[in-house]
Amino acid sequence: RLVVGYALTKKKVKSFLQPKLLLLARKKGISFIPIDETRPLSEQGPFDIILHKKTSKEWQRFLEDYHEVHPEVTVLDPPNAIEHLNNRQSMLEEVADLNLSSFYEEVCTPRQLVIMKDPSSIPTAVAMAGLTLPLVAKPLVVDGTSKSHELSLAYDEASLPMLDPPLVLQEFVNHGGILFKVYIIGEAIQVVRRFSLPDVNTYDLLNNVGIYRLPRVSCAAASADHADLDPRIAELPPRPLLEKLGRELRGRLGLRLFNIDMIRELGANDRYYIIDINYFPGVD
Ligand SMILES: Nc1ncnc2c1ncn2[C@@H]1O[C@H](COP(=O)(O)OP(=O)(O)OP(=O)(O)O)[C@@H](O)[C@H]1O
Ligand SMILES: O=P(O)(O)O[C@H]1[C@H](O)[C@H](O)[C@H](OP(=O)(O)O)[C@@H](OP(=O)(O)O)[C@@H]1O
Ligand SMILES: [Mg+2]
Ligand SMILES: [Mg+2]
């Protein structure tokens, strides 16, 4: 028997701990027990695994103190590893220096620039960094609040000072409007297609000014798995690449439960960009 103690938001319990999962788990001798965060963890359990997705500092300390005393309990995933993903700069650092051997397709991250404050400094900073427009502006901090998913697209330099630091500015990469979401669960890998943002062309650049708030595309995005799409756009990344990425990122991030948002550059069919990494996402 395996006892999994869980600390999840009500929303997450609803979306993740569905009856069919609990049933399947019970058949495999796995039981899920809710953790009472108001009582010491050592008075609860005993647990074989603690599964959690909580962002508060006190929970992080609570869990780390418990793990000191109970190193035999597997914590999915260690809070200090999850912390890496709470900032869109540290999130992608591990991917930026992934130099996969030439056996694999190229995997990189879009060029990006962190702006901590002073929006009036953005045009000069962007020019100095040589970033090309349009740019996707993303809140620097990812803490699960809807604010951390408020993205916008900046088409022209004059509108950059309207942005709201702290943020990361990432070059927009045309990718045919389809995104690959690669779910990594230990050694298992699942990949799905999602509709993404449409490509930007020179017409858009010449005729659009201002900052465009982007609708939440990713977790709400309809699956694109059944759309009849151009295979050059919709063809999934090669399995050996995904397996290599899974191994590399599990090791570098120290995580076993996460997904990566991957896009393939339009017209360069073996260049992929990782644009986002999420800890313990849903599988809507
Ligand atoms: N650099 C980029 N180039 C092209 N499209 C992008 C880029 N960055 C983001 N996008 C598009 O915007 C969507 C949301 O971006 P991102 O995944 O970084 O935001 P998020 O708030 O972390 O989303 P999630 O709900 O997946 O956590 C992506 O799924 C993709 O469709
Ligand atoms: O489309 P996916 O499965 O990636 O959607 C995820 C999303 O990527 C984020 O991981 C969300 O977590 P937060 O960043 O905490 O909002 C997930 O929401 P959750 O409530 O299921 O954890 C989405 O499912
Ligand atoms: Mg995403
Ligand atoms: Mg994300």
From TrEMBL:
ATP binds at residues 88, 138, 170-181, 196. It catalyses: 1D-myo-inositol 3,4,5,6-tetrakisphosphate + ATP = 1D-myo-inositol 1,3,4,5,6-pentakisphosphate + ADP + H(+); 1D-myo-inositol 1,3,4-trisphosphate + ATP = 1D-myo-inositol 1,3,4,6-tetrakisphosphate + ADP + H(+); 1D-myo-inositol 1,3,4-trisphosphate + ATP = 1D-myo-inositol 1,3,4,5-tetrakisphosphate + ADP + H(+). Mg(2+) 1 binds at residues 261, 276. Its EC number is 2.7.1.134, 2.7.1.159. Keywords: ATP-binding, Kinase, Magnesium, Metal-binding, Nucleotide-binding, Transferase. The keyword Manganese does not apply. It is an enzyme of class 2 (transferase). This is Inositol-tetrakisphosphate 1-kinase 2.
